[in-house]
């Protein structure tokens, strides 16, 4: 055979492999094995030779002096020498340490270097195997290097930002990437060692050759340039034995000098009694490192492996030539695949071996796209490959750096994927439009050309589109009200076992979790805790449960061959008697996993029950129960959701059952769905299929020469058939949104994604290729295969999920009856809309108080916001990015001294423009939150940030004219009398100041122009956050400050608890005044004027209580917050929230808004008027014109501010003008009262008492008749649905709806870290 030096098409291929492979590798017959990078198959000759060696010789423990032991020692040392010769390594320069695998060798080096004085720094290449990456956790400092950084380091540039003192370093990299086969320069090892020496560092080099030596030679003849440590796994070369090696350059043996641990056979003497001393073996390094007894038989097998591999394949040079030829063939074949529109089928990440012959191994890493550019799911490729007996590797292939580099995954994206639930081995591999792994095909010495050709043909057959995905025909007309029938109803009491068909004319209950008794039990592996599945244990289909209600038992029969002494049938009580299960506090109780999800199930304690299932399946397992009503890990939620093809348009398709519209490449199929409880089903409460679709599928199977499949293989709960003489189009269920069976409504949750479990014959447990192969050709969308549809029972839920915790009354159950009930497919029924489905819960003339409207709308609003986030039409509210214009920009600008930079002060209007632009972007981009209060506060923040920021930046000269109260030590005054000190204490504004005036004094601190950045920042932030400022009436805090704050807090807490408990019964406060929902009987009986007045009082109470709860609470927390400077925590700085209501008696509506109502925003609202007066555009402040302009501006700004709150709320309002008109009407009311009062005062003398009565009546009347504009906008914004109190005391006492939780706050009230796609979009999400 030729060497690998020639690139000729036929040179290098070892045709002899085709002749002996069937004999030497019988396990490969009928399969195409393309995972040699994982492990390579072992030959028959190897196993036979090893067996002869083992049966012909007696091998003892090498640590003994017997003849058998000496034989083992002799053979091991001979094999150790053969290993060095295999790699052309001089025994005088290298030693071989036998380990379990390459990872064990890496770990041995890492532990030794960790024990060195001062530890070690670690540098590793980005395309390293995970085992190399893990060494960084042992290092003092570590860094991941790419090609450019490695070369820069080797040419003198220090890669570590803080290298510290000169010490030991380790540089590790793979000789060949296990992901894409790329090979890296062996010269790096020597260059790194020399670079370290030039800087006074002892740099060791570690080379991972596990991937390289499986198909290529490794030459270590030059010990001067060779790596210090070389790790490999022999099973990747020979298939057997399961053994690895660490080759150590003798000049690097000192790296192990500080190793602490010693095991049996590695020491010459050990003293334990009275002293702690030992003497390690010193002749050979391997004697000190091979702890305990070696894997004698594995090493003996290595001798046979070296011989048989040489006999079968020749030298490793020959193997390299053979695999290089196949690699070129595979790369060219995949590269040549094209869709009908000319687009490439495969995106290949491995280097083209034709272009870089010596820099790539026999590995091809790639992904598949459809003709429209959408990525094909890796798991779907692997499922189909398994059915067709192709053995490949998909996923991250234990190479995180290589994957992130090839797929251009940034760290924030990988963390986001993890937060989204992605884990190694999960099926959700396309996230946010990007794959998370690759398909890897790797070749070995026993691979042949037909393996490559078959695999390329496989990709061509199933993934190269031969025609356009859709044509231009009009959508086919479908019957709008076709009558369907329930063909059969089945349940599967034990997950993945046989089904139980509900007898005809038998009523069957439907719960929110699905059909009664469906998938309530499961079988759990005793060792792993994994729930068993037919995919791995097909004989589970032969376990047939039967529900015997007369005897109260679940009877289980096994229809296959049973072992001796094993009954064919057992009975399990249907009752949930605790005595049947293992004790909850039993040490044996542990969690199980179903579909990758951790659950806590109730395991049966009976050896008879568990022994039956273990015997018939041949698997140690226990029966467990997962009943409805659990909490925490004892409950699960549905994962089904509408797929993109079910939301797309309905263009006609030429392929039967193909989906109606092209996919959208840049996104994944993840769609946030509302939580619905399920038991042990994979994705949804109920699965339905159509017989018409099964028939169409069988027609396709027969056209391809296959055998029809039974509907049973799809394991559906409900099978639907067309009515007599009414043909039904196949796959029409894809377009359904709801289904009515009798009088009961079901909501469709999306198409069912299929795996190769559908290929298991439910009668015989035999596995075949169909129907999955045909489904892969006719029912694939974005690489995923679908058949059937998920659905759930929706008792008037509007598609928002059954409320958790509610009891299962008759209204929460459905009764299905087989055959006699019809199933209607609505096309445009009102129930498909949210309002209509909620309306279906209301019964005319009844109380309707038990209907939880807020929960319905809460789920609805949140699902809309999540959908908008997924579609990119909304963004979350993230700090600090979302307050850049409201806070960050003005604060930073004001921190820069202006007095010496007049040009900077003149730029203030440009800064204002930037603030407005950033704040407008917050509104324009749909920034929102799933928390109602936060959503409303976003608009308030944007508006107030613009108003207040403009006031401080442009209208005021804060660095010239503004001072803040500050505290400093009082200078001692000579001759000061005690009387003077008493007078000073008496004149103090409050007792906190009086207690300290002898030693401290308050003073006005101007802007610290010459202070540090932190001093200036503290001054500006203090000013910016104290936006109440001056210019309004404030009362000094009372001596008992805590009680002063706690009194309104406690009263408001109780009032708000009562408010949220009662207001939710009035639809006016839920969806808004245009609510179509009928009133509860108590409210519907009230006269309209009285109901309107009641709503006004309720609204005012809610707003007042919320302000009286949170504003004093903020003051209380600020007063006792040690982070706030003491000067800012004096009691005189804390004014009361509201003024005296007596001001309404004396000044009417003016008194209400200027004195009684809180004045938090007054300075900002009046700043524009003050600025115009300063410019001379308005007369003096006391002038009537100025007062009118100031009041009008203040009310206008207040209206805009509250209107923006509705715009950014969770359900965004469109009534922008309502709050603005409301506040402007308050200004009009003040003018009317002033004018009318002034005119009447000239002609009518009215007593002070009656004047006060008139003021109160006018104020209350005006507010009552105008407040609807504001209150209705807040209703549309759903602000009344916000839960202001975390714990409901009234609900704890039993008030409210049954099952309503007293804990009112959920996760949306907790700030979370948000990983944005750019660094500036990351932060705290509210």
TrEMBL record:
One of its GO terms (biological process) is Mo-molybdopterin cofactor biosynthetic process. GO terms for molecular function: lyase activity; molybdenum cofactor sulfurtransferase activity; molybdenum ion binding; pyridoxal phosphate binding. InterPro entries: Aminotrans_V_dom (IPR000192), MoCF_Sase_C (IPR005302), MoCo_sulfurase (IPR028886), MOCOS_middle (IPR005303), PyrdxlP-dep_Trfase (IPR015424), PyrdxlP-dep_Trfase_major (IPR015421), Pyrv_Knase-like_insert_dom_sf (IPR011037), Wax_synthase_dom (IPR032805). It is a multi-pass membrane protein. SUPFAM superfamilies: MOSC N-terminal domain-like, PK beta-barrel domain-like, PLP-dependent transferases. The modification N6-(pyridoxal phosphate)lysine is found at residue 236. Keywords: Membrane, Molybdenum cofactor biosynthesis, Pyridoxal phosphate, Transferase, Transmembrane, Transmembrane helix. It is found in: Membrane. GO terms for cellular component: membrane. It holds the Pfam family Aminotran_5. The active site is at residue 398. Residues 661-811 form the MOSC domain. It is an enzyme of class 2 (transferase). Its cofactor is pyridoxal 5'-phosphate. Its EC number is 2.8.1.9. The chain crosses the membrane at residues 878-896, 903-920, 932-955, 1189-1208, 1220-1240. It catalyses: Mo-molybdopterin + L-cysteine + AH2 = thio-Mo-molybdopterin + L-alanine + A + H2O. Gene3D superfamilies: Type I PLP-dependent aspartate aminotransferase-like (Major domain). Belongs to the class-V pyridoxal-phosphate-dependent aminotransferase family. MOCOS subfamily. PANTHER family: MOLYBDENUM COFACTOR SULFURASE, MOLYBDOPTERIN COFACTOR SULFURASE MOSC. HAMAP family: MOCOS. Sulfurates the molybdenum cofactor. Sulfation of molybdenum is essential for xanthine dehydrogenase (XDH) and aldehyde oxidase (ADO) enzymes in which molybdenum cofactor is liganded by 1 oxygen and 1 sulfur atom in active form. This is Molybdenum cofactor sulfurase. It comes from Cercophora newfieldiana. The lineage of its organism: Eukaryota, Fungi, Dikarya, Ascomycota, Pezizomycotina.
